[in-house]
Amino acid sequence: MTNAQHQHFASLARAIAETRDQSAFAELFDYFAPRINAYLRRLSLDSGQAEEITQEVMMVLWHKATQFDPAKSSLGTWLFRIARNRRIDLVRRDRSDLLDPDDPV
Of 1, 68, 74, 82, which sits most exposed with the smallest number of CB within 10 A? Predict the structure, then answer.
């Protein structure tokens, strides 16, 4: 990705944060959602789980765009980090179901 693309995406995120620009969100959704979904599928999530987390990540962009700081990372890095963390949370929740509360160990 070029520096110009990084700057363009950062300006779109800023438009979402400042004015809830739906066309900016649509452009970012169209670009990032398929990539995030594919990333999650490569991490062995099934299609339903990958789609659910992808939707969550894009909702974070819509609701918390003000938290994105282009001085700290690119928008892509920020979104993929959110996706990664959501996947980790999902795995932790799934593992908690495997614990037997009656097991003395």
Answer: 1
